[in-house]
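I have been asked to look over a protein record a colleague put together. What it holds is a sequence and that sequence's fold in token form. Please read both lines and tell me whether the tokens look consistent with the sequence. I do not need a full report, just your reasoning and any doubts. This is what I was given:
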Amino acid sequence: MTYVNIIKEVEITKCVDQVDKTPLFCHFVSPSRESALSQRVSGIAENAADMAEFAEEGVLEEGASVTSSLTTGITASIIAIVVIILIMIIIYLILRYLRKKKMKKKLEYIKLLKE
């Protein structure tokens, strides 16, 4: 409010001291408009405070939703990676078993041929 008061004082002194009064400038600082201006400024200040609180709440809610969606995505990707790793391990074990089985058969044939 100090800025508003300083501006009002400057405007009032300019209209009083100046011989050739500028009509628009001096009309604006008339006492009837001064009270309307102060009411308007205080209303704007209150609305700005309310809007700031509203915006802060919205940002916090939006931030929470973004964080939760990122967490969901990260969780899904981790689960997918774990499933892929498990499938690869299972395939490796199956191939290893089949190779051992095949090698045993070859060893049996080699033993039979040597005899």
User: Anything to note?
Assistant: The helical segments are 2-17, 23-28, 31-114. The mean pLDDT is 73.
